[in-house]
Write a structure and sequence with these properties.
This protein is mainly beta and 299 residues long. The protein is 13% helix and 36% strand. The chain has 4 helices and 13 strands.
C-alpha cells in the first residue's frame, strides 16, 4: 500500500517525548518576534527528517526518513525513504472498527520489516515536482497544494512565509513550555488552521469530513528554531521532525538535481490546480526551465 500525504508535516503517542511545564512564560507577540528573527538569520539549511503518518481509517502507520536542503534562493530538495509500514489497531476509530482491516504484524514478520521505497520533492518558483520512482512518475503541482512543502516552509520561514502569515492562517490556541527527554527546553505552539489555509484545504481535499484540525510547532527555546511540526485531523496525523540541522553552511548544487531510476527519464504528469485562484501548473516554470527541461542527474 502506497501513501505519502503531504502533511499528503506529533501524534498522541509522541506527546510522551516531553514533560510539560506549567503554562507559558512567553507572550504571543514575543514568541513570534523571536521566531521571525530566527527565520531571518537562515540563508541555507540542511537537516535529517523523520516523518510519521498515521491513519485512523485503517490503523496504517508509515515511517519515513530523509534529508531536506534549503537554498538561499528558496529552492527546497527533500529526498525520503519509506522505512517502515505497519498496522496499529488502536488507531482505528470506533466508527471504522466494524470494517475489515489488517491485523498488526508480529515483530519479525515480513510485514514489519523495513520497506525500502523512496522518492523526492523539488520545490522552486511556486511549483513542486514529486518524483515517485516506484511508479516511474514526475508529478508537478502548485506549491500551495503540497502541504508537506508548506510545512517545511513554515518550519524554516522560507519563501513568502513569515510570522504575520502564520498568524493570519491560524488561530493561536496556546503557547506552552516543555522539556524534551534530552533536556532541551522548547516552546510548543498549538494553532487551529483557519478556513482556506493550506492545512485546512489539505484536510478537506483528503476527505476529512469533520475537519477537526490542530497544528503544532515545537520550537527550541535557545535558538527559536522549529524542530518539529505536527498536523492532526480527524482521520490522519503527520509529524515532521528535523534533526542534526546545519544552518548557513555551503550546499552541494547537485542535491537539487533529480537522480532517476536506472538513469532514464520518468513519465511526466501534470496535475491541474484544485484552486481556481491558483495559476495552472502549465503556466508556470520550474527554476525558469520548462518541465521537459528539468535538470536530471544521470548515473
Amino acid at each position: 500500500m502506497y501513501r505519502h500525504s503531504a502533511l499528503s508535516v506529533t501524534l498522541c503517542a509522541a506527546l510522551a517525548l516531553f514533560a510539560s511545564a506549567p503554562s507559558t512564560a512567553i507572550g504571543t507577540r514575543e514568541f513570534f518576534e523571536r521566531l521571525q528573527e530566527s527565520w531571518n538569520a537562515i540563508r541555507t539549511f540542511q537537516a535529517e527528517v523523520i516523518q510519521e503518518s498515521r491513519y485512523s481509517s485503517d490503523g496504517l502507520v508509515q515511517m519515513y526518513q530523509g534529508k531536506i536542503f534549503l537554498a538561499e534562493d528558496g529552492r527546497i530538495a527533500y529526498d525520503y525513504d519509506l522505512t517502515g509500514e505497519w498496522n496499529d489497531p488502536s488507531l482505528v476509530r470506533s466508527s471504522a472498527k466494524g470494517k475489515e482491516s489488517a491485523a498488526a504484524p508480529k515483530p519479525g514478520s515480513p510485514e514489519s520489516e523495513p520497506v525500502k521505497k523512496g522518492g523526492a520533492y523539488r520545490a522552486a518558483a511556486d511549483v513542486v515536482i514529486h518524483y515517485d520512482p516506484e511508479r516511474d512518475l514526475l508529478v508537478e503541482s502548485p506549491e500551495d497544494e503540497t502541504v508537506l512543502i508548506q510545512v517545511f516552509r513554515g518550519m524554516l520561514g522560507s519563501g513568502d512565509f513569515n510570522a504575520d502569515r502564520f498568524r493570519e492562517e491560524n488561530k493561536i490556541s496556546d503557547i506552552s513550555e516543555a522539556v524534551m527527554e534530552d533536556g532541551r527546553a522548547i516552546y510548543k505552539l498549538v494553532a487551529i488552521p483557519r478556513k482556506g489555509s493550506p492545512a485546512y484545504n489539505w484536510a478537506k481535499q483528503s476527505g476529512n469530513k469533520e475537519l477537526n484540525l490542530r497544528q503544532e510547532l515545537w520550537v527550541e527555546a535557545a535558538t527559536m528554531r522549529p524542530i518539529k511540526a505536527v498536523l492532526l485531523s480527524e482521520d490522519e496525523s503527520t509529524s515532521v521532525t528535523l534533526r542534526n540541522a546545519k544552518v548557513n553552511e555551503p550546499l552541494d548544487p547537485k542535491v537539487f538535481l533529480l537522480t532517476p531510476k536506472d538513469g532514464k527519464l520518468p513519465t511526466k504528469v501534470r496535475r491541474g490546480s484544485l484552486s481556481e485562484s491558483s495559476p495552472k501548473p502549465s503556466q508556470k516554470e520550474f527554476q525558469g526551465v520548462p518541465l521537459e527541461e528539468i535538470p536530471v542527474e544521470r548515473n
